[in-house]
Specification:
205 residues, alpha+beta, Glutaredoxin, 2 domains, eight-stranded mixed β-sheet, two-stranded antiparallel ribbon, 7 helices, 10 strands
């Protein structure tokens, strides 16, 4: 009997553990937090707050004013030696791939700095120059005051951790926001072509 009770208890624990694993991996579809985040926004779009930003030109821009367009958004800091440079080059290429929709104001590209204390408009403008921005349809900006950055990081699912040496470790991706102001899809850094194809396909609907 003791052996039977032990086997039954083990079975119950295994089933409970399996159920927890199933739930934690979104029905076995996601094995990481990042994968789960991407599945979640596809199935349940996230409203993006209308946070006030200061752009690379020094102008004020409210995110709510960009509703009505498709947005491709990345998060950067201008001193970043790796991911942000790659993302910058990718957004410059997107300016070419999406030149028509950008010119018609159907699409906008937006790089948001999470290092607002350092990334002044002059630093943001220099970042765009280093990335070889074509000058049309791509804005770099930093959140203004209050809890704007926290609200954006929460809505987009951005994780930023100081590396203790003046830099940051952060997740790098392209985020697609629909004309209603909802985050609807997330693409890997380096997957700009698929992001562009997705935007163009949605514009044709």
């Amino acid at each position: 009997m003791a052996l039977l009770r032990t086997l039954c208890a083990s079975a119950v624990l295994a089933l409970a553990g399996g159920a927890a694993f199933y739930a934690g991996t979104d029905g076995l579809r996601a094995y990481t937090t990042e994968s789960a985040r991407r599945i979640a926004v596809r199935e349940h779009p996230v409203a993006i707050p209308a946070v006030a930003l200061e752009t690379d030109s020094g102008a004020r821009l409210d995110l709510g004013a960009l509703r009505g367009r498709w947005l491709l958004v990345d998060f950067i800091y201008t001193r970043c030696p790796s991911y942000c440079r790659a993302l910058g080059a990718e957004l410059a290429q997107l300016q070419d791939r999406l030149a028509g929709p950008l010119a018609r104001r159907e699409v906008a590209l937006l790089s948001i700095s999470f290092d607002a204390a350092h990334d002044s408009p002059a630093e943001l403008a220099a970042y765009l120059r280093r990335a070889r921005s074509r000058g049309a349809g791509w804005v770099a900006a930093r959140p203004l005051g209050g809890d704007g950055l926290d609200r954006l990081e929460h809505a987009f699912g951005i994780t930023v951790i100081s590396d203790g040496a003046g830099g940051y470790v952060h997740n790098a991706a392209l985020h697609l926001v629909d004309p209603r102001g909802r985050l609807v899809s997330i693409f890997d850094a380096g997957d700009g072509q698929r992001a562009a194809q997705t935007v163009l396909a949605r514009l044709e609907r």
